[in-house]
């Protein structure tokens, strides 16, 4: 199961010996999961536990990290503006949006099923529509329709504005959207790579087909504000996360949660999507 | 993860986990040690043969001391097979664990309930459906605050509840159906988890159809409606009002306040005024 990342972090290496002194004023971590099916209140306890383990993992004293979690885009933007975090776990859209203003440097990328990138696809019932243009004015469902500017600029590379081109029918639960598509209650559904990979397990999968695929887009993991987090601390965080899936209890948990590794984020990993974000106005 | 691996794999992964209402924890297996039951010298004398009949009356309003005494007898006396292989020991553990605030003690009581259920099933319990239900509900309680344990056992929980829903749907007035609905509502969604909003609605609706008298059936259906359906606020509000009345009037002991708190949280999350 891919119940990964934070849970892994939370569970790992609590026994590691404390290391260097903590940042004097502590660090803020902001986690934004736009449109996700979790209530912010549900996140509180888990986030606290997660951070205590990150602290142990990196050798920071307990209480060094504070956290905030939200599934609302507007709340996330407000938090970014009002209290700029030291570290972030953001959607790709929010990451691109906030990267310059918050000097965000990606530290690690998760590798899931051998991939560190994702592809968005538009699915329809076989034989109903051939191309995106045919879907003008039609309904598009799915769980990833919250960040419309990101979809317009990056996923569709400026070719169309989803908010104008489609009647958007967002649903936190992708499976519901797909069932509606199969029953003819939706005209199309946007799915990501993991959802696409899960299609063969659905009884109506053979009735569906892809009519559009985005270019691969990099997964986002933990990023840090270069202006506020010293290089040594960024390195410390990246190295701690990078060791997680290598051996012992960490490897066991990585396996359970479906993350193969946390890899250092290549410097150029986000160049293409960043360029699309900037140039596609 | 299930919804946004493209956009925030870490956040999404965390979110998937949080759907279970869990805090991450590093416990992978159920605890094996038992809760020490104190003050058992004052327990009433009766034969274990009488326990099944007495246990029929056990519920959330039963005094804890009576439940502890029953569990003490189960642990220490020679147990008749019909008691051993029934769901009664696991049910007693569940009733105790459910009201226990200390997390470690709750985990241990629930884990003991799981073991009683496993023993009963291993010996071909004639009440397998009922036993599956108490196995699942104890397992759920034991894993409630331990993410890894919960994730590891999601499939087992689902299977036990499906068996219980098929063989003993009336246990605890629709307990297997409402718990199955809750599991599908709270588990990480497709494609990585068994979470399924449509199934959550299906099972919670069935629980309400068959047992509208149990407040949790109404509560869970209201929650599923608010989570899964659009424009279901009126139906959810009506369910919550009925549930509140049932909770306030019913024999639910310590559970009453917990359920009312849960009810208020569901109403608040759904922007419903009661």
Could you characterize what this model shows?
The complex is a heterodimer of chains A (281) and B (274). Chain A has eleven helices and 14 strands. Chain A is of the alpha/beta class. In chain A, the strands form four sheets. A five-stranded mixed beta sheet of chain A has the order 2-1-3-13-4, sandwiched between helices. The model of chain A is unreliable at 1-22 (pLDDT under 50). Chain B has 274 residues and is an all-alpha fold. Chain B has a single domain (11-269), classed as Serine Threonine Protein Phosphatase 5, Tetratricopeptide repeat (Alpha Horseshoe), CATH 1.25.40.10. Chain B starts with 8 loop residues before the first helix and ends in a 5-residue tail after the last helix. At the A-B interface, helix 1, helix 2, helix 4, helix 7 and helix 8 of A face helix 1 and helix 8 of B.
Produce the secondary structure layout.
The complex is a heterodimer of chains A (about 280) and B (about 270).
Chain A (H helix, E strand, L loop, with lengths): L5 H6 L15 E6 L7 H19 L6 E6 L2 H10 L4 E3 L2 H7 L5 E3 L1 E4 L5 E2 L2 E5 L13 E4 L5 H8 L6 H4 L1 E4 L3 H9 L5 E4 L1 H6 L9 E6 L3 E2 L3 E4 L5 H12 L5 H10 L3 E4 L6 H9 L2
Helix pairs in contact in A: 4-5
Chain B lengths: L8 H10 L32 H6 L7 H13 L4 H4 L3 H12 L3 H20 L5 H16 L3 H21 L7 H12 L10 H14 L4 H14 L4 H17 L5 H15 L5
Helix pairs in contact in B: 3-5, 5-6, 5-7, 6-7, 7-8, 8-9, 9-10, 9-11, 10-11, 11-12, 11-13, 12-13
Notable characteristics:
heterodimer; A: 281 residues; alpha/beta; D-Maltodextrin-Binding Protein, domain 2; five-stranded mixed β-sheet; 14 strands; B: 274 residues; mainly alpha; 0% strand
Mean pLDDT of chain A: 84
CA radius of gyration of chain A is 20 Å
Give the N-to-C terminal Cα separation of chain A.
38 Å
Spatial order of the strands forming the largest sheet of chain A: 2-1-3-13-4
Decide which structural class fits the backbone of chain B: mainly alpha
CATH topology grouping of chain B: Serine Threonine Protein Phosphatase 5, Tetratricopeptide repeat
Helix content of chain B: 55-70%
Query: Could you give the distance between the termini of chain B?
Result: 35 Å
Poorly predicted spans of chain B: 1-26
CATH class category of chain B: Mainly Alpha
- Structurally, the number of domains of chain A stands at 2
Report on the biggest sheet of chain B: none
Topology-level CATH name of the largest domain in chain A: D-Maltodextrin-Binding Protein, domain 2
Low-confidence stretches of chain A: 1-22
User: Helix segment count of chain B?
Assistant: 13
Helical content of chain A (DSSP H or I, runs of 4+): 25-40%
